[in-house]
Structure formats: C-alpha cells, structure tokens
C-alpha cells in the first residue's frame, strides 16, 4: 500500500532529524544553561541517589523473593488479555462504521438504500473485449449476488459491462460477490476480463493491507532482533525481549477489541490497524527495553545480573514510566477525533504503552532477569560471570544504589 510505504521514509527522516538535534543542539544548550534547567531540584556533586530508595526500588524488592512466580503469573494474565484478539475483526470498516457520528453522507446513503437497491450508487464495472462482451455479460448476470446487468457498452475492441450488486457495496457479501465474479470470469472468453468499481477497489485495499501485515510484521521483528543482539551481545536476552514485546502487543489488541465493542459499539476495524499498532508499540517497547537492559548489562559487570536487574529497575523505572505516560496521553488524544480508525488506533497504542511501561518492562522483564540471572547474556562472556551471593537474614530487602556519577573537569561549566 502506498499509504503504508510512504509512512516509512517520512518517519525515518523525522527520527534522523531528532537524533541529530539530540546529539548536537541539546547537549550544547545543557552546557550553556547549566544545572538550573533541573530546577527546583538541582543535582550537585555528592547529592544522594534518589532512585536507590524510590518506588521502583521497592517494586524490585517485592519481585526479588519469588521472580519465577511473578513472571509466570504476569505472562499468564497478559495471555488471557490477548484472547480478546480473536474478537477483533480486522477486515475493514464499513462507511457507516468509519465515523463515530453520522455525517450527511451516511444519512444520504441510508435514505437512498430505503428507495433503491442497496448498491445502486456503486456499480461493478467489468472490462473485456468486444468479441467476448455478450458472453461476459451473461456470466456476470448468472453470478450469485448480482442484482442487474446492463447491456455491454462497446467502443472499438473494448467493451464495458455494468452490473448492480444485491448487497451494500461495503459489505462482506458484496466482497464475496467480487471474488466470485473474478473467479468465474477466468474461464469466460479469453479469461482476461477485469472487475472494477468501488467495491472491487475496497476489496483490493483490504487484501493488500492484509498482505502488508504478513510481510512487514515479521521483517520488523527480525530487524529488532538483530539490533538487540548487536547491542546486548547475546542471543537469549534479545529472544526473550522480543517475546515480551509480542505478548504486550497481543494483550493490547485483545483488551482494545473488548473496549471497541463495549464503548464504541464497533467490532470491526481497518485491515491496516494491526500493522500500525505493531509498528508503534514495537518501536516504543524496544526503546524501553534498551533503556532498561543496557543499564542492567552495564551494572552486571560489577554486581552480577540479579543485583544488576534491581539496580536497572530502580535507575530507569521512573524514566520509563514518565515517558510511557506522556506517550500514552499523546496517543489518547486521537480518541477525541470523529474517525473510528484513529480513535481505535489511539486507544490501542495508549493502552499498549501503559502495559509496556507499567507491567511488561518493569515487572515481567525484571522478574525474568532475576530468574535467569547470568544466562540472559548467553553466549557472551558475561554469561560466565556468577552472580553475587544473595544477602541472608531478615529485614527489608536492600536494593544496591546505582553507580555514582561524579563530575570530572570536563563537566565543569567554563568561565566567561
């Protein structure tokens, strides 16, 4: 689909420009402005590390005693939520369902349907040769779902056969009629007859979108898997992280399907909906994976993977959660628009981002890190480094503080 293909370079250019700005302009502004940009809490040399005793440090302490039970239960709940995806009918929205309200065009169509055949304003056009015109017209008239056929219009060597459908032009029954026409006309005349019209175009759009889903989603997963493998220098961790992303995506679609049916009164959606939701959620989910797992890997060299998992959660949990809430609120704004597809997209992505930040990244991945330990980094040499022994005794679990970040002479703001 050109609409999907066109999104690729536009989004890539936007990300590239943002990268350049963040690598050049932002650091320069931070150096020029100094620490006051963090007002009212200005960090200084020797300031206590707030994340060591913060909310996410306490969450890590709760996960630490029974990580396997935590990730099994969490994954099970997400799987149950994902069962709702079987109620998601991603085969295209009808014209009436495409709007949350009832614009004049839909009202006019309803009035016309009461007085004329259901698809009177959307005929099917069959293009064939003049020699086969009569035979093709007869075959079209004998096809189930065709209401009426006009006499062929012949111009030179070409002929056009116009037919009316018995069902609404954007219904599943009308699409089935188009399929029957195309299959049947393959054996009529020279077999080169072409079936067109609005119904045929819409059917082709849905078919192309479904094909894009089958091709692009696996390609995205493969690219992400390679990037994670290079970044984390492991195989186990990237595979597990991809699995958590797919689990989060399925849960978001399943819960969204229930919301659409209960609150929007629509059980269908556009064929491109699964693809757009996947692209947004995977891009954002992998970002959060990178935020968390790179910190865990960094700390694992000093503390072992299990202690590093707690440090990584404590240090990045607030950042990931804040970013997720901002993104969820941004996409939720789409829910105020009058188009059903955009409303559905906003709800699904906002819900998926919240699941990703609050549950998957912070609870599920941390529990998996604690359970698997150094095996997360197989086959790298980090997988051979044994974890530090667990502390024994009663009392509260103490989460080790993240690495101290001290100023160097290069960090000091220049005078003048």
pLDDT below 50 for ≥5 consecutive residues: which ranges? 391-399, 404-416
Given the C-alpha coordinates, what overall shape results? Answer: elongated
Radius of gyration: 29 Å
Give me the number of helical elements.
Answer: 11
The CATH H-level superfamily of the largest domain is Multidrug efflux transporter AcrB transmembrane domain
Tally of domains: 2
Assembly state (oligomeric): single chain
Count of individual beta strands: 5
Biggest beta sheet summary: 5 strands, antiparallel
Q: What string gives the helices and strands in order? A: HHHHEHEEEHEHHHHH
Strand content: 5-15%
Structural class: mainly alpha
CATH architecture of the largest domain: Up-down Bundle
CATH class of the largest domain: Mainly Alpha
Tell me, rounded to a whole number, the average pLDDT.
Answer: 86
Span from first to last CA? 57 Å
Which fold name corresponds to the CATH topology of the largest domain? Multidrug efflux transporter AcrB transmembrane fold
Helical content (DSSP H or I, runs of 4+)? 55-70%
């Amino acid at each position: 689909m050109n609409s999907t293909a066109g999104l690729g370079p536009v989004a890539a250019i936007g990300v590239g420009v943002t990268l350049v700005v963040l690598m050049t302009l932002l650091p320069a502004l931070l150096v020029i402005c100094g620490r006051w940009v963090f007002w009212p809490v200005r960090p200084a040399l020797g300031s206590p590390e707030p994340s060591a005793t913060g909310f996410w440090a306490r969450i890590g302490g709760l996960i630490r005693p029974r990580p396997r039970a935590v990730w099994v239960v969490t994954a099970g709940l997400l799987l149950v939520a994902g069962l709702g995806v079987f109620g998601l009918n991603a085969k295209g929205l009808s014209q009436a369902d495409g709007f949350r309200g009832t614009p004049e065009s839909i009202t006019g169509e309803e009035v016309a349907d009461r007085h004329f055949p259901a698809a009177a304003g959307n005929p099917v056009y069959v293009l064939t040769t003049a020699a086969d015109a009569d035979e093709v017209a007869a075959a079209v008239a004998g096809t189930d779902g065709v209401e009426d056929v006009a006499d062929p219009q012949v111009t030179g060597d070409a002929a056009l056969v116009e037919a009316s459908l018995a069902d609404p032009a954007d219904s599943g029954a009308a699409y089935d009629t188009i399929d029957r026409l195309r299959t049947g006309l393959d054996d009529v005349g020279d077999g080169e007859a072409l079936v067109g019209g609005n119904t045929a175009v819409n059917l082709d759009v849905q078919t192309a979108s479904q094909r894009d889903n089958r091709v692009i989603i696996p390609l995205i997963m493969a690219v992400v898997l390679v990037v994670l493998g290079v970044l984390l220098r492991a195989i186990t961790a990237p595979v597990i992280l991809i699995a958590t992303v797919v689990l989060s995506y399925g849960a978001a679609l399943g819960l969204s399907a229930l919301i659409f049916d209960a609150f929007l009164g629509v059980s269908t959606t556009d064929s491109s909906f699964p693809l757009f939701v996947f692209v947004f959620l995977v891009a954002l989910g992998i970002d959060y994976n990178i935020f968390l797992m790179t910190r865990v890997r960094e700390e694992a060299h000093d503390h072992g993977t299990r202690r590093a998992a707690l440090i990584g959660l404590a240090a990045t949990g607030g950042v990931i959660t804040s970013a997720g809430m901002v993104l969820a609120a941004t996409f939720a704004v789409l829910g105020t628009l009058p188009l059903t597809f955009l409303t559905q997209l906003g709800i699904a992505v906002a819900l998926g981002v919240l699941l990703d930040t609050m549950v998957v990244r912070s609870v599920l991945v941390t529990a998996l890190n604690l359970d698997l330990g150094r095996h997360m980094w197989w086959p790298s040499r980090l997988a051979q480094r044994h974890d530090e022994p667990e502390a024994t005794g009663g009392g509260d679990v103490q989460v080790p503080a993240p690495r101290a970040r001290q100023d160097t002479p290069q960090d000091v703001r220049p005078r003048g």
